[in-house]
Design goal:
The structure is a single chain. The chain is an alpha+beta fold. It is 55% helix and 13% strand. A hairpin with a 2-residue loop joins strand 3 and strand 4. The protein is elongated, with a radius of gyration of 22 Å.
Length: 176
Amino acid sequence: MNFKLTISPAIEAGNPFIQFMFESKLEAEAASNTCADLLLFMQDKAGVMDDYSNSFVVEQKIDGEWVDLCMNKKENALVIFKEELGELAIEILKLQQQVSKAIRFGIDEQRDLPTSNRERIESEWNDLLGSLHHLNKVGISLKPSICDIRDKVNKIEKYNKYSESLGTLTKDQEGK
């Protein structure tokens, strides 16, 4: 086995690290990504600590020595963006409930929580925008397409009108 993956999960209880051996770099990197996704998905059940990072190091055995196969800044930025998207996917599931609460009780209502529905939604949105900004800083520019955005808005408006014609959507108090 010429490649080693060392995982240091940021969990409250557990081993300081876990190692796996692989025949190829591709296998080791795929395992690293899969483990990262699994830890992210299972963060509540696995006891992943807030404000700590899991560590995934892929090494290659060269002349009997293990050499760290480091990422460049662009690869690292993409990993951060990927992690943020994974977190966002999990948070979107939670936010669906928050959006329902915002619809039922109001966007600025906060019940017995320290933040309002709007603040919780904005927080996740800002995390995603921050990771996009980081990608741009390292030279990976993902620019919005005004044309594509306009097409999406037009599609939403088209189906809103269709819903209105069916009687399943009513205009708000301001007639919008």
